[in-house]
């Protein structure tokens, strides 16, 4: 039995499974129970889940519970000993939660811990949700801007296109660059990993080379040293003033977000410019960001949304549900839970495992 509870995080509109995925699970020998109203924030009525073959009831007593956000302490108390929990479990930033799961006898698989290898791409929920965030960030920046993004030729004259800079060329950054380009902006990407320059160019954007390199493990950038960070800040501050829209996406797993946009850089930007900071939840890439708020400083709008994927719940939920389905295909054999912990995907993503007596 697979249980799908309603998400309890304020502002969360995603749901862990959607009807299109639910209807594929009986072929794996799985039944699904969905908490009443779990899909309503994503505009999915209970009747759609029932039509897909699910039942409506208590999801917490299921063998496997699938969530989007980390469980609260109260939610962990509802889980049965010996059950499995799948979701974003925040093992690096919320270790106490992982310890509670362990104490409750729950085996936890963290979606953010799935390794970024070729065979695990279909399970890579970080990437699927980052695609949503990168796309939405450009729309947010365009809506806050006082300028057109594309070049417009009108009877009153020509308006030149806006210049957009995306800091961080991971999945969110590349999607933001591609979206800005499609909307007509002059898009430029920057990253401390020089090997992603070709990826930036592949979406039609220019590459900003500041001469600082910091390639890390697992496809992420490593944390810069103090001297490197100071030099990066100096060079970025000079470059940022040339752009109308700056989108920051830089993250270091388990650490505060690196500061890329200084207060001085914001002050140098033209009035009416916009910064969209996607790292607000881990402190922000911009020195003047206020996580969860949109503020105006030096006539520059700075937005630091905390959960952009939740603002597009239909497609964000569908993509996430596909990631969960792909993981379930590894965990379930002929309708029974049979995780092979010698599999590198399961070994990496399992953050707590029930001790066998």
UniProtKB/TrEMBL annotation:
Protein name in the entry: proton-translocating NAD(P)(+) transhydrogenase
Catalyses which reaction(s): NAD(+) + NADPH + H(+)(in) = NADH + NADP(+) + H(+)(out)
Top enzyme class: translocase
Listed InterPro entries: AlaDH/PNT_N, AlaDH/PNT_NAD(H)-bd, NAD(P)-bd_dom_sf
Source organism phylogeny: Bacteria, Bacillati, Actinomycetota, Actinomycetes, Pseudonocardiales
E.C. number: 7.1.1.1
Residues forming coiled coils: none
PANTHER family hit by this protein: NAD(P) TRANSHYDROGENASE, PROTON-TRANSLOCATING NAD(P)(+) TRANSHYDROGENASE
Signal peptide per UniProt: none
Listed SUPFAM superfamilies: Formate/glycerate dehydrogenase catalytic domain-like (SSF52283), NAD(P)-binding Rossmann-fold domains (SSF51735)
Keywords: NAD, NADP, Nucleotide-binding, Translocase
